[in-house]
Structure formats: structure tokens, C-alpha cells
């Protein structure tokens, strides 16, 4: 079939020629059962998959660890998430950079982080930015103690972590 | 002279390509992050900056009530008429009326195009989600400087 097709006319004969035909019964003594797969289509599909996954590759996802019970609020117009100290509210507990704190110790912990930043970057001005990661159902009463502590510790910029719609 | 019948075509060995692509796909699938996380940038509405350093630019205060009503108050603006300085967006089915807020903000923005600052004052029982939704509407209306006030 293929030998009569358009591939016959080409200088370099087609990939199928002489390979993928199962030899008809009785034609030869040695039966050729093996059949080659067309790998070009497979490579095409794989390449498209790789390109799609590379385009969706995000390096910012590792900044936050979102728990099973935590559901972030959704927003249409959100900015890119940057690496800053993360204050997390999870099951009515407050964590500053994964360290468990309470309403009384959060300011001290934030001041400690500020001190560490200034020791590491003596010539730079302290940016005063922190990210708040909380469940969407949390009441403002609870968030308020974090905002007040941030205010006291000199963190004027708050970044609320949201899921982009 | 004998002419040997040699095939001119040759096949590229595709197996290493497939191996490479398979490994790439596995790596990318494992490390892929399907949740697109962003951030809503907000400033402390009170005490973040010294009063002398603060510019007297037009701003709108949005006071959220526990029932879902919103009270808008425009300050430091000469263009906004007295009738629009204080607006109330009533709740809808015990929820915040976001469409009403959007309309109110767009009418304010038409009168005062330099209105770029929005400050939110929630109540203790206001949910975090409602605050973020109000911020989203403020951003949608073209306000770039957002702030949240402590209780």
C-alpha cells in the first residue's frame, strides 16, 4: 500500500517503508511480526506538554504553605507575591515565620525579625513589609491584633495573601 | 563495477528524546503549582507615617458595619459636592452590596479623578473575605493606595 503512495516519489523514502508492515502470511518463510511505532507523533505530544507546563511554571508558589483547612480569599486584581516575613493564622493560632506566637509575644517576634534584617543589611532602610496569610472566614477582631502588633513593630506595609481569580 | 544498493535515508534515534521529554514532564508535573497566589498590598491607615509627611490628597473612608452596610466619606477634596461627600451603600440580603459600592466609587471617581486613596475601617465581626472583596472593588475603580484601620 505504502509503496504505491506518495512516499515512493520522495528522494528519502518514508519512515514506514520496509519497517512497519507485518509481512503477509506465506510470503516468506521468516515471519516478521515486530512493528515499529510512529514515534514522531508521540514526541510532538510530549513537546507540547513540556511547553505548556513550562509556561505555567511558577516559582512563587513555595513562598506560602497553605494548609488543608485553610482557604485564602479570592481577588481579581492582586499583585505578585514576594518573599517577606509571613504571619500565618491557622486554626486560631498565630505563626510568625512558622514559629508559634500569641497576642503578647507577636510584637517581640516581629521586632526580633526587624533586628535580624538590620544586622544583615546595615546600609539598607528597613522596608517594613510583612505578608498575612489567613483563612477567608477569619474575623477582623483576630486580624486586628496582628495589624496592631505590626504597627507597633514598624511594619507599615501589609500584604494580604489571596488567590487570584 | 558493482553498484551497492545503499539506502541514503537514516533514522534518528528517537528513544533518548522520548526519555528526556518524559523526565521533563514528570519533573514539571511534580513541581507545578496549580494555585495562583497573589497579594493585596495595603498600608496601615493609622500611624504608618508622620502627619507632616502625609500629602493632603483626596481620600475616601469606607466604614463597614456588622450588618453589611457601607458608609463612604470623602475627605480632602474640593471637587466632590456636599451631596456626594457622604454616601451609604445599604446591605443586600445581609451581605455587602458590591455592585452598589462599585457604582458609588465610579460616580466619585468621575467627579474627582485624583481620588486614589481608599481607607477601610471594618468592625470586629467583619470577615476577612469581605475586607478583601471591598479592596478588590477599590482597586477595580482605579484606587492604588489602600489602607486598613485597626479597631
Structure write-up:
The complex is a heterodimer of chains A (165) and B (151). With 165 residues, chain A is of the alpha/beta class. Chain A is 28% helix and 18% strand. Chain A contains three helices and seven strands; from the N terminus they run αβββββαβαβ. In chain A, strands 1-7-6-3-4-5 form a six-stranded mixed β-sheet, with helices on one face. In chain A, α2 (106-120) crosses α3. Chain A starts with 38 loop residues before the first helix and ends with a strand. Chain B is elongated, with a radius of gyration of 29 Å. Chain B has helices at residues 15-31, 82-85, 98-111, 128-140, and strands at residues 37-44, 59-64, 70-75, 86-89, 117-121, 145-148. Chain B has a six-stranded mixed β-sheet. In chain B, α4 links the parallel β5 (117-121) and β6 (145-148). Helices cover 32% and strands 22% of the residues of chain B. By secondary structure, chain B is α/β, with parallel strands linked by helices. The model of chain B has no long low-confidence stretch (mean pLDDT 85). At the A-B interface, α1, β1, β2, α3 and β7 of A face α1, β1 and α4 of B. β2 of chain A pairs antiparallel with β1 (37-44) of chain B.
The share of residues in extended strands of chain B comes to 15-25%
Outline of chain B, from the CA principal axes?
elongated
Looking at the structure, what is the overall shape of chain A? elongated
Strand content of chain A: 15-25%
Amino acid at each position: 500500500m505504502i509503496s504505491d503512495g506518495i512516499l515512493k516519489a520522495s528522494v528519502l523514502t518514508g519512515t514506514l517503508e520496509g519497517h512497519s508492515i507485518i509481512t503477509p502470511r506465506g510470503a516468506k518463510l521468516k515471519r516478521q511480526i515486530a512493528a515499529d511505532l510512529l514515534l514522531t507523533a508521540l514526541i510532538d505530544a510530549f513537546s507540547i506538554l513540556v511547553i505548556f507546563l513550562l509556561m505555567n511554571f511558577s516559582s512563587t508558589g513555595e513562598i506560602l504553605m497553605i494548609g488543608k483547612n485553610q482557604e485564602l480569599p479570592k481577588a481579581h486584581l492582586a499583585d505578585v507575591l514576594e518573599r517577606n516575613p509571613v504571619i500565618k493564622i491557622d486554626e486560631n493560632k498565630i505563626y510568625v515565620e512558622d514559629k508559634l506566637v500569641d497576642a503578647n509575644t507577636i510584637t517581640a517576634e516581629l521586632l526580633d525579625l526587624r533586628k535580624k534584617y538590620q544586622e544583615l543589611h546595615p546600609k539598607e532602610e528597613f522596608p517594613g513589609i510583612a505578608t498575612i496569610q489567613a483563612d477567608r472566614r477569619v474575623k477582623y477582631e483576630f486580624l486586628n491584633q496582628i495589624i496592631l502588633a505590626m504597627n507597633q513593630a514598624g511594619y507599615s506595609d501589609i500584604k494580604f495573601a489571596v488567590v487570584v481569580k | 563495477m558493482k553498484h551497492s544498493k545503499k539506502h541514503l535515508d537514516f533514522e534518528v534515534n528517537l528513544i533518548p528524546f522520548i526519555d528526556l521529554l518524559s523526565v521533563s514532564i514528570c519533573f514539571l508535573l511534580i513541581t507545578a503549582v496549580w494555585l495562583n497566589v497573589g497579594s493585596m498590598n495595603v498600608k496601615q491607615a493609622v500611624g504608618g507615617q508622620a502627619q507632616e509627611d502625609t500629602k493632603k490628597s483626596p481620600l475616601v473612608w469606607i466604614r463597614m458595619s456588622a450588618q453589611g452596610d457601607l458608609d463612604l466619606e470623602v475627605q480632602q477634596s474640593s471637587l466632590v459636592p456636599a451631596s456626594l461627600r457622604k454616601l451609604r451603600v445599604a446591605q443586600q440580603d445581609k451581605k455587602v452590596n458590591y455592585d452598589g459600592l462599585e457604582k458609588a466609587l465610579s460616580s466619585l471617581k468621575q467627579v474627582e479623578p485624583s481620588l486614589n486613596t481608599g481607607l477601610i475601617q471594618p468592625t470586629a465581626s467583619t470577615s476577612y473575605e469581605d475586607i478583601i472583596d471591598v479592596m478588590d472593588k477599590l482597586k477595580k475603580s482605579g484606587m492604588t493606595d489602600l489602607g486598613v484601620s485597626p479597631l
